[in-house]
From TrEMBL:
Domain of life: Bacteria
Pfam families hit by this protein: YidD (PF01809)
Natural source organism: Kocuria subflava
One term under GO cellular component: plasma membrane
Family matches, as NCBIfam families: membrane protein insertion efficiency factor YidD
This protein's name: Putative membrane protein insertion efficiency factor
Length: 168
């Protein structure tokens, strides 16, 4: 007698691959390549650390109360991760001002731009959480794709800091 075969279907494989992708995803912290970047990235990484502590210690006490997706703390973490300390903090404050008891809520994505990602494997954990579907991640990656008419040299100069930092 043969054993029954369990067929998970496409949805099962997609869930497993999404979990594997999340498990292997780099953290939100940006790792400097040189001494200058240590100072340049320090404010960004300190703000990221603060938000990660808030999400681990304080946010669970409130439960799921945010009317927006992603939640305000997830929005803040993604905006800091993608746009850096100054613009990320500005986007986060703007989002917090929109979040009040009379807000309609709904989907409120972090604006495109900022730190470029060229593959799904480069996306930090918070970006994967805030962009849960493969279609959503593909749209995000497409926003960083070079235009067909531009030369490769055009994209080597687009940096938020003097040298590209490494992401872990």
């Amino acid at each position: 007698m043969t054993e029954p075969r369990h067929h998970h279907g496409v949805a099962g494989r997609q869930h497993e691959s999404s979990q594997d992708l999340f498990d292997a995803a780099p953290s939100e912290f940006v790792h400097p390549n040189n001494a200058f970047q240590i100072l340049w990235l320090l404010p960004q990484n300190l703000l990221i650390a603060g938000l990660k502590m808030y999400r681990a210690l304080v946010s669970p006490l409130y439960g799921d109360v945010c009317k927006h997706f992603p939640t305000c703390s997830a929005y803040g973490l993604e905006s800091l991760t993608r746009h850096g300390a100054l613009r990320g903090l500005g986007l986060t404050v703007r989002r917090l001002l929109r979040c009040h008891p009379w807000a309609a809520g709904g989907i409120d994505r972090v604006p495109d731009g900022g730190r470029p990602f060229t593959s799904v494997e480069q996306l930090p954990k918070i970006v994967l959480l805030n962009h849960p579907t493969p279609e959503d991640r593909a749209r995000l990656l497409a926003s960083f794709a070079p235009a067909a008419s531009s030369s490769p040299a055009d994209h080597t100069t687009r940096q938020s800091s003097p040298a590209e930092p490494q992401v872990s």
